[in-house]
TrEMBL record, chain A:
GO terms for biological process: protein ubiquitination; ubiquitin-dependent protein catabolic process. Residues 165-177 have a biased composition (Basic and acidic residues). Belongs to the SKP1 family. SUPFAM superfamilies: POZ domain, Skp1 dimerisation domain-like. Residues 127-170 form the SKP1 component dimerisation domain. Residues 8-25, 178-188 have a biased composition (Low complexity). Probable essential component of SCF (SKP1-CUL1-F-box protein) E3 ubiquitin-protein ligase complexes, which mediate the ubiquitination and subsequent proteasomal degradation of target proteins. Regulates cell proliferation during embryonic and larval development. This is Skp1-related protein. It comes from Caenorhabditis nigoni. Keywords: Ubl conjugation pathway. It comes from the Eukaryota. Residues 38-96 form the SKP1 component POZ domain. The keyword Chaperone does not apply. Pathway: Protein modification; protein ubiquitination.
TrEMBL record, chain B:
This is F-box domain-containing protein. The lineage of its organism: Eukaryota, Metazoa, Ecdysozoa, Nematoda, Chromadorea. Residues 14-54 form the F-box domain.
Amino acid sequence: MSSTEQGTSSAAPAEPTTAPESAAAPEVPESFYYVHGKDKVVHKVSAGALQHSALIHGMISNLGYTEEQAKANPFPFENIDGDILQMVVDWCNQHKGKPTPPEDTNLPKQKEKLFDLVLAVNYLEIKELLTYCCKQVAMMVKGKSPEEIREIWMIPTDAEDEAAEKEAKKRAGKEAAGETAAAAGDAK
Amino acid sequence: MAEKEGKEDYWSKLPWELKEEIVGYLSFFYKLKFRQVCRETRDMIDSKSLRIQDVRLSESGIKLACRKEIMVFRFRYQYDTFLPFLTYLFSVMMVNELEVTSSGRWLFEKVIQKLPRGIDSLRYNVAYYDDSEIPIYMNWELEDRMDPPDEEKTSLKWMKKLVINQFQKIFRTPILGESDPTNCMLWEAALDKTKEEYAVAIFDPFSPALNDLESSDFHPYFCNFGREYLMTIRGFNKMIVFHPENSKWMSIQVFPLEAFMPTAGPYIWQRRRFFEEKLKIETFDDVYDGMIEEEPSFEKSLRKMQAKKKEFYKDKIWYR
């Protein structure tokens, strides 16, 4: 997304939702960047925390923004929900400059949020968090029968899948036939 | 993948790489369960190999063990139902140790055409004369000289070599005392020379302790090995045995197990006279032209065989 677009979408960044942690490195002033999701709420994140995300880290190093430029041009992630982005930002802030533990128990247990989080983290390329999330999804499978998994994750059975595919094909065939008939009518 | 009406299909939202990563965190037990969820999960799990620590295959069922998990499938004589499953398992699993009991051997032989590459060590159980089972361990890298190129490692012929080598080590030496070390080389050379479908095994079936020529009985270890193993495995339709009376190696036919009546199996092995009369006997000279002189001295022929073998393996790097 271009910088002009960003300017219209979030010209005046709202109150940053996360406070910067400046105690760790007092000598060199830490630089901050701004991100926003689908809900346009801007989150202020330190460069150290953003290092977890390979995508954002690459963007920062390529752009070379000053503090003012960064404030004026928050990184837009229109495909990520606001609450999911908040979760990601919180996680990055929590694990800023720290070695990542082998397990993370603070991940959401609800399947909707977890799957959205997996997609967001995959998009932002946060390797450690992605590992936790995938493990969490794998944990959901444990202790469940195939039918239960199918029900929880709303996966259609083979028969349902085939029927849906057939229907889709039929529909596409009908639509194509309708279009050709309309074209013939127009020609007449 | 189509979505259920009005509901969101969470799984299909994920990209393929993520799905693979998630499946990678599942244990083999849950992989097998997850495989049943839909077509996509089935394809995904089948595309990767399953790591299982120990597998025990017998006639009654198959036991799969991985870390703390143990899965047992009982066949209940419904082999037709289970054979496709077994074929699938052997095509995808990577096993640390596979144990095949003497009763389950026919299933194993039926399922595999070629030894699966994913098996690190194979334990083949052979029934002893008192029906107790004696394990024959086969690790693919037993000794320096037993390390063939990869394509040879999985062949049935190679497996037979290992079985016989191990058999010699386990049965013959401890039970009957030191056997002639060149004996192994003889059958190895014979196996190398013959085609896969017409493999030959060379055995000295007589106990070294029973040197008196009057005794024509084979030692029970041999009967059982012949009955339980050689006759049920593909390819062993000829066998060469050492004839102590005229110091000649002779070949005898090994029939598939079905050719014998249940009680006739051991008999044919115990009475030499029986098969001498009934079966076509070829001398060793017929198999190895010019290897044995007209009046053969056993030692002389062995020396000659060793020289031949050295020459045979001269350009085989793996053998050195």
